[in-house]
Design a protein that fits this description.
With 591 residues, the protein is of the alpha+beta class. It is 35% helix and 19% strand. It is built from 20 helices and 21 strands. The strands form five sheets. The protein has an eight-stranded mixed β-sheet with strand order 1-20-16-19-18-17-8-9. The chain has a five-stranded parallel β-sheet with strand order 11-3-2-15-21, with helices on one face. The protein has a three-stranded antiparallel β-sheet with strand order 6-10-7, with no helix packed on it. A hairpin with a 3-residue loop joins strand 8 and strand 9. Helix 2 packs parallel to helix 19, helix 3 crosses helix 19 and helix 4 packs antiparallel against helix 5. The longest helix has 31 residues. The chain starts with 5 loop residues before the first strand and ends with a helix. The structure holds flavin-adenine dinucleotide. The site of flavin-adenine dinucleotide has 41 residues, from helix 2, strand 3, strand 12, helix 13 and strand 16.
Length: 591
C-alpha cells in the first residue's frame, strides 16, 4: 500500500557567528532603532515555565445557545451485546472512536500503518531528541468535544491558555492585533475587536463590519441552529465571493482574512468555501471564549496523544502499530446485502486477516480512497469520497540561538537565560507561511532549552510550490522570510531545522465540497467511517476529527443488536464452510 507522502528530516545549519551580542557593531545600532520603532506593539515577554491552565475556566459554554450538532449530548449507557471493533487509523478520529466504544464496554483493536499514533496531530522524537511534529496545532476555546476527550483521559491540565487576541506579524516587525480583550463578552468583545484592529485601515474596517453585520452570524446570536443551516447553504460560494458581495474589500482579504483562511484550511479566501469561514465566525461572535487560543504545554506525543493512548490501553484497547490495512474483505448475504468479512493487514513481511463485529476506517482522505473496494463505488456514497482531495502542507521548524520574536529589547533577544518574545499563535500576510509560533515560548515543556533560543514552527501554505523543493532550499527561503518579518533577528544563528511534508493533509474545503463528505454510517452494515473529512458540523480540524469519532461510536452502539446477529450468521457460515470443506476432503480421500 502506498503511504501518505510524509517526509520528516532534520538537518544542522550553521550560520555566520552571532555578532550582535553586546550591541557594539554599527549593524546593532540600526537594529536598536528598528527595535525602538516597534515598541508600541503589545509584545508579551514570557518566563519559562509559563503558567499552566486547565479546562475548568475560559471554555465556551456550548450547552446553551450553540448549534446542537457541534456538541451532542452525552450518550446513554449502552445495554446491548458487547462488540469487537477493529479501527483502522490512530489519528484523533480513530482515538476518539476507541475511547467512546471502550467507555460503552466494547472491545477495541486499533491498526495503524505508521510507527507512531496521532496521524496529523502526531509527533515523534528523532535520534537527537527533537520532537518532530506533523504540524502546528492550536486549540480554539470552542473545542468542546476535544476538551471533553482530554478531560476523560486526564490531559485537561496540558493546555496553556494564551492572551485573548489574534496577532498578525507584518513585514518589518509591525504588529497588528485583533484584540478580543474587553469588559464584556460576546458579541460585544468581537465588535470591539473588529472596530479597533490596527491590522486594517478605517475604510476596510467599516466595510468589514458591514459584511459581518449582514451575515448569518447575526442570526446565530438568537437561533444558532438556523444560522448553521444558512451557513451550510453558503457552501457553494467562496469566502471572497460572499465577502465582496457583502461590501467587504480586497484589502481586508489580503491583510487579515487570507492568513486566517490559510491557517484554517491551507487555502486562501478565493478558494475556501464561505461555509468554512462563517462557521468559525458564528462561533467567535456568539461564544466569548471561542476565539481564545490554547496550545499544548509541550509535544503532542507527550501531552495529547500519549494520555489518550494510556487511557485506551488501561481500558483494554490494543494498538497494533506498523500494521497497515491493505484490503477490506467483503461478501454478500443471502439477501444480497454487503458486509465486511475481515481486514487484510500487513506489517513488513508479516500478514494477517482480522475479523471483528464492526469495522471503522478512521483514515485520512488518501488513505480511505486506497481502501474502498472498487466495487463499492457503485454506491454514490463511496463514489463521492473520490471527489474530495487533500491539500499539501509543509511544516518547518527552525531553532535559533536567540529570541526571534522579541521586538522590544535587543539585549533580551540575545540572552539565553530566559525566554523572550511573543507567546501566541502568529498570523502573517507577508510570508509564504500563514501562521507560526515560537514553540520554545508557547509550548515550553519540550521545546524550551536552557542553552538555546526560539524554536519557530511555521506552516507553509499553499504547500504546493514547496513540495518538490529540497529541504535545504525550503529552509533557506523560510529563514529569509523570517528575517523580513523580524529584521531584529538578523545575525541570530540558526542552529537546527527540520521539514515535514504532507502531500495530502486536510481535505480541500473548496466551494461545493461539503456535499461529498460521507456520513459515518455507510451502506455496508458493519462498516463505519470516522475522520475529520467525514460529515460533521465543524471544519476539518482536531475538533472535527474528535466529533466524527463520537458520531461513529454512536452509530455502532445504535446498530449493536444487528451487528451481533450478523456475527452469529457469519459464524454459522464459517461452520458451514468448514463442514463443506471437510466433506470435500472425505470425497477426495475416497477417490
Ligand atoms: C500542518 C497541520 C496543522 C494543523 N493545525 C491544526 C490546528 O491548529 N487546529 C486544529 O484543530 N486542527 C489542525 N490541523 C488539522 C488536524 O490535525 C486534523 O484535522 C486531524 O488531526 C485529523 O484527524 P483524523 O484522525 O481525521 O486523520 P489523521 O490524523 O490523518 O489520521 C488518519 C490515520 O490513519 C492512518 N491510516 C491511513 N490509512 C491507513 C491504513 N490503510 N492502515 C492503517 N492506518 C492507516 C494514518 O497513518 C493516520 O495515522 C492541522 C493539520 C495539519 C496537517
Amino acid at each position: 500500500m502506498q503511504l501518505n507522502y510524509i517526509m520528516a528530516s532534520a538537518s544542522i545549519h550553521l550560520q555566520l557567528p552571532n555578532q550582535m551580542l553586546g550591541g557594539t557593531s554599527s549593524h546593532s545600532h540600526s537594529l536598536k532603532e528598528m527595535l525602538h520603532t516597534s515598541k508600541s506593539s503589545r509584545n508579551r515577554r514570557v518566563n519559562v515555565p509559563s503558567v499552566s491552565c486547565n479546562l475548568k475556566a475560559k471554555v465556551s459554554d456550548m450547552s446553551s445557545k450553540a448549534p446542537k450538532g457541534l456538541f451532542p449530548p452525552e450518550p446513554e449507557k449502552y445495554e446491548g451485546p458487547k462488540l469487537k471493533v477493529a479501527i483502522i487509523g490512530s489519528g484523533l478520529a480513530g482515538l476518539s472512536t476507541a475511547v467512546e466504544l471502550l467507555d460503552q464496554g466494547h472491545e477495541v483493536d486499533i491498526y495503524e500503518s505508521r510507527s507512531f499514533i496521532g496521524g496529523k496531530v502526531g509527533s515523534f522524537v528523532d535520534k537527537r531528541g527533537n520532537h518532530i511534529e506533523m504540524g502546528l496545532h492550536v486549540f480554539f476555546g470552542c473545542y468542546n468535544n476535544l476538551f471533553r476527550l482530554m478531560k476523560k483521559v486526564g490531559a485537561d491540565e496540558n493546555l496553556l491558555v494564551k492572551e485573548h487576541t489574534h496577532t498578525f506579524v507584518n513585514k518589518g516587525g509591525q504588529i497588528g492585533e485583533l484584540d478580543f480583550r474587553f469588559l464584556t463578552g460576546a458579541p460585544l468583545h468581537g465588535i470591539k475587536a473588529f472596530l479597533t484592529t490596527n491590522q486594517l485601515l478605517n475604510f476596510d474596517k467599516v466595510a468589514n463590519a458591514i459584511a459581518l453585520a449582514t451575515s448569518p452570524v447575526v442570526r446565530a446570536l438568537i437561533d444558532p441552529d438556523g444560522a448553521m443551516e444558512d451557513i451550510r447553504n453558503l457552501d457553494n460560494v467562496s469566502f471572497s465571493e460572499w465577502f465582496m458581495s457583502h461590501g467587504g474589500t480586497r484589502k481586508s482579504i489580503q491583510r487579515m482574512w487570507d492568513p486566517v483562511a490559510y491557517a484554517l484550511g491551507f487555502i486562501n479566501c478565493d478558494n475556501i468555501s464561505a461555509r468554512c469561514m462563517l462557521t468559525i465566525f458564528a462561533l467567535f461572535a456568539t461564544k466569548t471564549e471561542a476565539s481564545l487560543l490554547r496550545m499544548l504545554k509541550g509535544s503532542p506525543d507527550l501531552y495529547l496523544t500519549g494520555p489518550i493512548k494510556r487511557y485506551i490501553t488501561e481500558k483494554g484497547g490494543r494498538f497494533h502499530l506498523r500494521w497497515g490495512c491493505r484490503e477490506i474483505l467483503y461478501s454478500k448475504n443471502s439477501a444480497g446485502e454487503t458486509y465486511v468479512s475481515g481486514l487484510h493487514l500487513s506489517k513488513a513481511t508479516q500478514k494477517q486477516i482480522v475479523k471483528a463485529d464492526a469495522y471503522v476506517a478512521a483514515c485520512d482522505v488518501p488513505g480511505i480512497k486506497r481502501l474502498i473496494p472498487s466495487d463499492w463505488q457503485k454506491w454514490e456514497f463511496f463514489d463521492n469520497i473520490y471527489k474530495l482531495v487533500g491539500v499539501p502542507v509543509v511544516t518547518v521548524q527552525l531553532r535559533f540561538n536567540g529570541w526571534v520574536t522579541e521586538l522590544q529589547d535587543l539585549e533580551q533577544s540575545r540572552q539565553l537565560n530566559r525566554a523572550a518574545g511573543l507567546d501566541n499563535l502568529l498570523y502573517t500576510p507577508d510570508a509564504d507561511f500563514s501562521c507560526f509560533a515560537d514553540l520554545a515560548i508557547t509550548s515550553p515543556e519540550d521545546y524550551y532549552r536552557s542553552d538555546q533560543g526560539s524554536l519557530l514552527q511555521v506552516v507553509l501554505t499553499p504547500g504546493d510550490p514547496y513540495m518538490p523543493l529540497p529541504n535545504e532550499e525550503i529552509i533557506d527561503k523560510v529563514h529569509k522570510q523570517v528575517l523580513s518579518l523580524f529584521p531584529s533577528a538578523q545575525g541570530l544563528e540558526m542552529t537546527w531545522s527540520s521539514v515535514v511534508k504532507i502531500g495530502q493533509s486536510l481535505y480541500r474545503e473548496a466551494p461545493g465540497m461539503d456535499l461529498f463528505r460521507p456520513d459515518q454510517k455507510t451502506p455496508v452494515q458493519n462498516f463505519f467511517l470516522a475522520g475529520s473529512y467525514t460529515k460533521q458540523d465543524y471544519i476539518d480540524s482536531m475538533e472535527g476529527a474528535t466529533l466524527s469519532g463520537r458520531q461513529a461510536s454512536a452509530y455502532i452502539c445504535e446498530s449493536g443488536t444487528m451487528l451481533a446477529e450478523l456475527r452469529r450468521m457469519l459464524q454459522f457460515y464459517d461452520v458451514l464452510g468448514q463442514v463443506k470443506s471437510a466433506e470435500s476432503v472425505d470425497e477426495l480421500t475416497v477417490v
